From TrEMBL, chain A:
GO cellular component, one term: plasma membrane
Organism phylogeny: Bacteria, Bacillati, Actinomycetota, Actinomycetes, Pseudonocardiales
Domain ABC transmembrane type-1 residues, every copy: 95-324
Keyword Membrane belongs to the record: yes
Protein name: ABC transporter permease
Organism in which the protein naturally occurs: Haloechinothrix aidingensis
PANTHER family in UniProt: DIPEPTIDE TRANSPORT SYSTEM PERMEASE PROTEIN DPPB-RELATED (PTHR43163:SF6)
InterPro entries registered for this protein in UniProt: BPD_transp_1_N, MetI-like, MetI-like_sf
UniProtKB/TrEMBL annotation, chain B:
InterPro entries reported for this sequence: AAA+_ATPase, ABC_Ni/Peptide_Import, ABC_transporter-like_ATP-bd, ABC_transporter-like_CS, Oligopep_ABC_C, P-loop_NTPase
Family: Belongs to the ABC transporter superfamily.
Phylogenetic lineage: Bacteria, Bacillati, Actinomycetota, Actinomycetes, Pseudonocardiales
Protein's membrane topology: Peripheral membrane protein
Species this protein is from: Haloechinothrix aidingensis
Keywords: ATP-binding, Cell membrane, Membrane, Nucleotide-binding, Transport
GO biological process: peptide transport
Protein name: ABC transporter ATP-binding protein
Boundaries of every ABC transporter domain copy: 4-255
Broad class of where this protein is predominantly found: membrane
Domain of life: Bacteria
PANTHER family attached to this UniProt entry: DIPEPTIDE TRANSPORT ATP-BINDING PROTEIN DPPD (PTHR43297:SF2), OLIGOPEPTIDE TRANSPORT ATP-BINDING PROTEIN APPD (PTHR43297)
């Protein structure tokens, strides 16, 4: 098991190396550069040139890449051109917001999608089933930013039920420990902050959950339908087992296997989807920062953020694969 | 009194917008306590559907079940599902064809045995585990304590079937239904499993309903044999009489198509012509007529009745054969051309 984990993490190194090459050279293909966005419009050509020189952008690109790799060896992604702070610091202050949002979205998707898919399969052809199928199609089709904007307009601005932006109510006092507001406030016992943080998570969480919810519902439904027709379910019934035992131990346990894999893959796409949702709700996570960085041609920030996201994505998938071995003895690693 | 009485059992599948398919068409037979009965027929003749109907395991939607099935005086078909569940696994148990797909891949073998004990005997924890180990040992699985913690994929095919048998006999059922229990196994393992089933049935006094397409399987095991064709019983006989003198041309054809060690070298097997799809409706005559070497026009005039032809020997044929399965009529009319309703 330990060897397996080490092996998987070592596989990460060539993957990240390839990703860094791809991103580094790709970014430079974008028209313009930081000298156009960081300096005022009336800056002189000399000023622009001086900035390029000071940022090392006039070196041959291969040399720049070499310098980047050298810093990377010390886990240093350089400083953000916009803020001047180390990219790593920018990431660690913003990541909890995105993670919190992604976790909220995934929790909604799992807690609603699995029961919905299960009952849709059990009542195949019923109204519930056709609504679940139609609803999940809708969930996949509606663009996340559109859904986010609609939720914000209806529930925050028109009805005023839920907050429309930020992670907490204005003026709320809170103690920062991990950066995860819900967790921090529970740890410190500031439950009014917990409530506020949860309230701020509902709309963006719902918007971001639409795709994973649709996928999980569909996958659960298809998987349960398949398992219901399996011989071992008939065997379980031939033993006279109670329906609840047949449904949980024999149907659901097997039906969950493909869904778990899907959850792992969807978690990665949530990090991407968060960019749009965060922008709509001014959530202040990594998504909006990446967007800003791209606008500003903040090369170190984009590169660093994307590589850190890649690492997180791989680690999350590793965790999902490891948890998979708990559910399916056939893939148990030795 | 008979332990199991099946009277005019019929099963019809009625799919959406599809013509109903009658898989079992008036099957009747009885079983005594401790009897080992073979139900023989080729694929599609209704064997497995019959066994599922006896267990109450047919889906409720799209299936119509008719007739009566009495098990120990209880009408199984009209039993509420709660009572039926109480009976399944404790009184009636079943062994399935493919042991790999019939075992839950993500639940340890031990749990799959103990869940039956837990359900019907109320056994818990160590008592259930010890009993499960005893059962695995009883069906010839070596090192049973270790096997309890293993998963189906870690067992060989024969071991899996033994484990399924252990689950089925866990609560000492009075009737054990084995649906092609050896079809998915190697020939060497087949013999072991058959021996085990026969030995279990005889030592525990369990009635065994052996469902198979393989006459070789019933030859060594069964007291009596029912031969099924197109959803009906066409011959009922003791094993000895059936092999010595099959009366129905279909049975004779089945026996003729089995390879024999004592046949002369180079002698070809005699297959039965056509397939089970070449059939006519029982209402119009004998369903086997289109494939039969012995039919006459008489075969196409209504359903042939099951007639007695000696002690415990019945057949559903107007032109029964006796000892000569190879003989053929030269100038037979074509039942299809003669207006038989070919399905």
């Amino acid at each position: 098991m330990f060897r397996y984990i080490v092996k998987r993490l070592l596989q990460l190194i060539p993957a990240l190396f390839g990703l860094s090459i791809l991103l580094f050279f790709w970014l430079r293909l974008l028209p313009g550069g930081p000298e156009n966005t960081l300096l005022p419009d009336d800056a002189s050509a000399q000023q622009r040139e001086a900035l390029r020189e000071s940022l090392g952008l006039n070196e041959p690109i291969i040399v720049q890449y070499g310098l980047f790799l050298e810093r990377l060896g010390n886990f240093d992604f350089g400083n953000s051109l916009q803020t001047g702070r180390p990219v790593m610091d920018e990431f660690t202050t913003r990541f909890p917001a995105t993670a919190e949002l992604a976790i909220a979205a995934m929790l909604i998707a799992v807690c609603v999608g699995i029961p919905l898919g299960y009952f849709a399969a059990r009542k195949r052809g019923s109204f519930l089933d056709s609504s679940a199928v139609a609803g999940s199609l809708l969930g996949i089709c509606i663009p996340v930013f559109f859904l986010a904007a609609m939720l914000k307009v209806v529930f925050a601005e028109k009805l005023g039920w839920l907050p429309s932006a930020f992670r907490l109510d204005a003026g709320a006092r809170f103690t920062e420990i991990t950066g995860f507001r819900v967790l921090d406030s529970v740890l410190t016992g500031e439950f009014d902050v917990t409530a506020s943080a949860l309230g701020h998570l509902i709309l963006p969480g719902l918007a971001l959950s639409s795709i994973p919810l649709a996928v999980i519902t569909r996958m659960t439904r298809a998987s349960v339908l398949e398992v219901l027709g399996q011989d071992y379910v008939r065997t379980a019934e031939s033993k006279g087992l109670q329906p609840t035992v047949v449904r949980t131990r024999h149907v659901l346990r097997n039906a969950m296997l493909p869904v778990i894999t899907a959850i792992g893959l969807l978690t990665g796409s949530l990090l991407a989807g968060a960019v749009l949702t965060e922008s709509v709700f001014a959530f202040g996570g990594i998504g909006s920062f990446i967007y800003e960085s791209t606008q500003q041609r903040d090369y170190p920030a984009i590169l660093g953020f994307l590589m850190l996201i890649a690492i997180i994505y791989v680690v999350v998938n590793l965790l999902v694969d490891l948890s998979y071995t708990l559910f399916d003895p056939r893939v148990r690693v030795r | 009194m008979a332990l199991l009485t099946v009277d005019n059992l019929s099963v019809t599948f009625t799919g959406n917008n599809q013509r109903p398919v009658r898989a079992v068409d008036g099957v009747s037979f009885g079983m005594d306590e401790g009897e080992v009965l073979g139900l023989v027929g080729e694929s599609g003749c209704g064997k497995s559907v019959t066994s599922l109907a006896l267990m109450g395991l047919l889906p409720t939607r799209g299936v119509e079940v008719g007739g009566r099935v009495h098990f120990d005086g209880t009408d199984v078909l009209s039993l509420p599902s709660r009572r039926l569940r109480d009976m399944r696994g404790s009184q009636l148990a079943m062994i399935f064809q493919d042991p790999l797909s019939s075992l839950n891949p993500v639940v340890p073998i031990g749990r799959q045995v103990t869940e039956t004990l837990r359900r019907h005997k109320g056994m818990r924890g160590r008592a259930a585990r010890d009993r499960a180990a005893e059962l695995l040992d009883r069906v010839g699985i070596p090192d049973p304590a270790r096997r309890l913690t293993e998963y189906p994929h870690q067992l060989s095919g024969g071991m899996r079937q033994r484990a399924l048998i252990a689950m089925a006999v866990a609560c000492a059922p009075r009737l054990l239904i084995a649906d092609e229990p050896t079809t998915a196994l190697d020939v060497t393992i087949q013999a072991q499993i058959l021996d085990l089933l026969g030995e279990l049935a005889r030592s525990e006094g369990t009635s065994l309903l052996m469902i198979t397409h393989d006459l070789g399987v019933v030859a060594g095991l069964c007291d009596n044999i029912n031969v099924l064709y197109a959803g009906r019983v066409i011959e009922v006989s003791s094993r000895k009489q059936l092999f010595a003198s099959p009366h129905h041309p279909y049975t004779a054809g089945l026996l003729g198509s089995v390879p024999r060690l004592d046949a002369p070298r180079g002698e070809a097997l005699t297959p039965i012509r056509g397939s089970i799809n070449d059939t006519i409706d029982w209402d119009d005559g004998c369903a086997f007529a289109p494939r039969c070497d012995h039919y006459t026009m008489e075969c196409l005039t209504g359903t042939p009745e099951l007639v007695r032809a000696g002690e415990g020997h019945q057949h559903r044929c107007v032109n029964p054969v006796n000892l000569d399965p190879g003989s053929a009529h030269a100038d037979r009319p074509d039942p299809v051309a003669e207006g038989g309703n070919v399905r």
